[in-house]
Amino acid sequence: MSMMKRISMIFRAKANKALDRAEDPRETLDYSYQRQVEMLAKVRRGVADVATSRKRVELQMNQLQSQSAKLTEQAQKALGMGREDLAREALTRKSGLQTQVNELTAQHAQLQGEEEKLTLASQRLQAKVEAFRTRKETIKATYTAAEAQTRINEAFSGISEEMGDVGMAIQRAEDKTQQMQARAGAIDELISTGALDDASAIGQGDDITRELEQMSSQSDVEAELAALKGATTPPAIDSSAPAAVEAGGAADESAAPVAQAEKEEQS
Amino acid sequence: MIVRILGEGQFEVGDAELDRLNELDAAVEAEIDAGNEEAFHARLTELLDGVREVGAPLADESLEDSDLILPPADATLEEVREMLADDGLIPG
């Protein structure tokens, strides 16, 4: 049997099981309505929870981004003072931060998606719960217990399916959010201990430094270092051609093309 | 015929479209049996796109149950397997 048929049969079986429990079918209506209202509250809490997680990720992204800007500044300063080692360390840390920012950006998109889905689910459920309430009052006022059965079955199976769907959506959103919260906790820890704070405190070889070094891509660092040199070197050599040649000769191999480019610009 | 995509809502689909959807559904099932996550996801996306394309969304306040129910778009192979096993993912 097809997948879509099988899933729908499982849903229907659960709805029927719930319906069989009551003696007077009209009692089922009130009981079911009660559960619907509870589910509605639950899905709204779900939306709020996901929004809280999303805001937390946003806050972290802002913190890491301002930290990243600070490290660029520090690298510039360090290079201006001729401390390439310090600049390299700052950029290495920055590259590590960038990895975290990228991860957070992906998480943020996922949370936003969950929030949207749950918001829509809560709107759908609310519309159905209201429709059910109207139907329930009509059935109770108009029909005897025996007559009511078919009408109740109709209203009941539709809403019960929606409840199953929403219940599953909440569960999935919770699972996803929980996975992310563990990760967010780790980043909060890094931020609050100041481990990501200051590249001037480097050279101590702490765990964070090593970890960030591992995470950073060496080529990123080299590329950015070369770019920064391009930005900071010209004022220092004061546009005099012999000094530029000297600088080109003193620089290591990776920086040589940059010095070469500068020479060409100046000539 | 009413088709529900879990996490997304219900669609009214003409009976004439059923053959095509059954084909797409069979392709998804084949990948569930084969256990190929990537291919499973590609076929599931095709099936859901097929439903969205030919189906008209049902009004939010409708209380009709669905003839067919499909997994959510981001479901993993494992989740769908659990869904198909009774007492699995579907809350009672």
What does this 3D model show about the protein?
The complex is a heterodimer of chains A (267) and B (92). Chain A is mostly helical. Chain A folds into two domains: 158 residues, Helix Hairpins (Orthogonal Bundle); 57 residues. Chain A is built from eight helices and no strands. Chain A starts with a helix and ends with a helix. The two termini of chain B are 24 Å apart. In chain B, helix 1 packs antiparallel against helix 2. Chain B has three helices and four strands; from the N terminus they run E-E-H-H-E-E-H. The C terminus of chain B is likely disordered. Chain B is globular and about 35 Å long. Helix content of chain B is 47%, strand content 14%. A four-stranded mixed β-sheet of chain B has the order 3-2-1-4, with helices on one face. Chains A and B meet through helix 1, helix 3 and helix 4 of A and helix 1, strand 4 and helix 3 of B.
Describe what is shown at a glance.
The complex is a heterodimer of chains A (267) and B (92). With 267 residues, chain A is an all-alpha fold. Chain A contains 8 helices and no strands.
What's the structural blueprint in terms of helices and strands?
The complex is a heterodimer of chains A (267) and B (92).
Chain A: H1 3-20, H2 25-80, H3 84-142, H4 145-192, H5 207-215, H6 218-237, H7 241-250, H8 256-266
Helix pairs in contact in A: 1-4, 2-3, 2-4, 2-6, 3-4, 3-5, 3-6, 7-8
Chain B: E1 2-5, E2 9-12, H1 18-34, H2 37-54, E3 56-57, E4 68-70, H3 77-84
Parallel strand pairs in B: 1-4
Antiparallel strand pairs in B: 1-2, 2-3
Helix pairs in contact in B: 1-2
Q: Regarding CATH, which class of the largest domain in chain A?
A: Mainly Alpha
Distance between the termini of chain B: 24 Å
Shape category of chain B: globular
Mean pLDDT across residues of chain A: 78
List low-confidence stretches of chain A: 199-209, 236-259
Question: What is the residue-averaged pLDDT of chain B?
Answer: 89
